[in-house]
Write a structure and sequence with these properties.
The protein is built from twelve helices and 15 strands. The chain is an alpha+beta fold. It folds into two domains: 168 residues, Endonuclease, Chain A; 190 residues, Endonuclease Chain A (Endonuclease, Chain A). Strand 5 and strand 6 form a beta hairpin.
């Protein structure tokens, strides 16, 4: 990780904090906007962001929206028409998705959620352009985070967004020459240290996982990880177990509700060994957990789009921000502890051992199927 000094970082919890901040930045844009998202729903939030993008384009801002061909395959035609009429550009990452092909390339998605406005303010996190209340009957929002960035690090976010946009445009036969970036924001006095870490399938295949492992291995007091989809490989599991063995308090806040059946039950086949190692597992049940964040020793933190599973760590394009700042880490930790206290259920090791045989069989059968899929994609080394 290459940390950049002098940034001003704001932790944003859920869409209720993220979308007003994003929309305000879009409305303040003067030159250019890059926005990347995996999901882009035809709902109130989608309308809010589309209207802000269209207003920016109409006043002469260069607006570039990149959506994923699978996650946003149902991108609303009315949104496309609004943006086209205003002069905004929309590109689709890997648009051809056939339900009948099993080629592993179809799993290489653009899972990043980031934005950069005028090279002066940026957003990175796990929040898609979609309403917080996406499931019928929910009375609480899905739990997620993003970080608003001002300062020198925005130049790196802009560079990554411009690079991917240019590549997708070239693939689509729309070669574009992007203008040079504006001068980087001067470092803030007493600013915060942060690093942008991306994952792709070329030069940065394991950068996010390696960053996590570096922080896990250096932790001395506490590791707190929240991950919506948790199916770690051998290296990651061993690092957590080793941390617990040397006396580090290791807490995992994981999805308690069933959203995707196979990953949900397959991941639970790993819980026994983790609990036996002294790792505490909390299942979040208050709403759907979508967070991908972590805190290490109350002084370093991570916020991003990458889950701890084969899809995020081995296949998808992801973007995380790692923060070396005690104040930011403490704020994120307090938010996670509040989520644990008010919305999670702890898994006692002895209770886990006494699960009915059919439940244990379901976990291991699911695990076996998941392993087959990973092996089919030629990523057996993950386990």
């Amino acid at each position: 990780m290459r940390y950049v000094e002098g940034n001003r970082l704001t932790l944003l919890r859920n869409g209720e904090q993220y979308f007003p901040s994003l929309a305000a930045a879009l409305d303040g844009a003067r030159d250019e906007i890059f926005l990347e998202t995996y999901l882009y729903a035809d709902d109130e939030t989608g309308s809010l962001i589309t209207d802000a993008l269209a207003r920016a384009a109409a006043r002469g801002v260069s607006v570039r929206l990149l959506i994923d061909g699978f996650g946003a395959r149902d991108f609303a035609p009315r949104f496309r028409a609004i943006l086209r009429e205003a002069g905004a550009q929309v590109l689709v990452f890997r648009p051809k998705v056939s339900p009948w092909t099993f080629r592993r390339n179809r799993l290489r998605r653009m899972h990043r959620k980031l934005a950069c406005v005028d090279g002066r303010v940026a957003f990175v996190g796990g929040i898609n352009v979609i309403d917080d209340y996406d499931f019928a009957g929910d009375t609480t929002p899905r739990h997620d985070y993003a970080v608003r960035i001002e300062g020198p690090l925005t130049a790196e976010v802009r560079a990554e967004a411009a690079k991917l946009w240019s590549r997708v445009a070239l693939t689509a036969g729309r070669m574009q020459s992007l203008p040079p970036a504006r001068a980087a924001h001067a470092p803030f006095e007493h600013g915060q240290r942060a690093a942008l870490v991306i994952r792709d399938s070329v030069r940065h295949r394991s950068d996010i996982e390696d960053a996590y492992l570096e922080l896990i291995e250096s932790a001395r007091e506490e590791i707190l990880i929240a991950s919506a989809y948790f199916f770690p490989g051998r290296r990651f599991r061993h690092a957590l177990v080793s941390a617990a063995a040397r006396g580090v308090r290791v807490v995992l806040l994981l999805q308690g509700r069933v959203e995707y059946v196979l990953p949900h039950f397959a991941s639970r086949a790993l819980f026994g060994s983790l609990l036996a190692a002294g790792i505490r597992i909390e299942e979040y049940r208050h709403s759907f957990l979508h967070a991908k964040v972590a805190v290490f020793d109350c002084c370093q933190a991570c916020v991003g789009s990458s889950n701890i599973d084969p899809y995020s760590l081995l296949l998808a394009r992801e973007a995380n921000v790692f923060v070396d700042d005690a104040r930011f880490a403490t704020e994120l930790r307090a938010s996670l502890e509040d989520a644990i206290r008010t919305g999670a259920r702890s898994l006692p090791p002895q209770e886990w051992k006494r699960r009915p045989l059919w439940r244990r069989a379901l976990n291991w059968i699911s695990y076996g199927i998941a392993r087959l899929f990973i092996g089919f994609a030629s990523y057996e080394r993950y386990h």
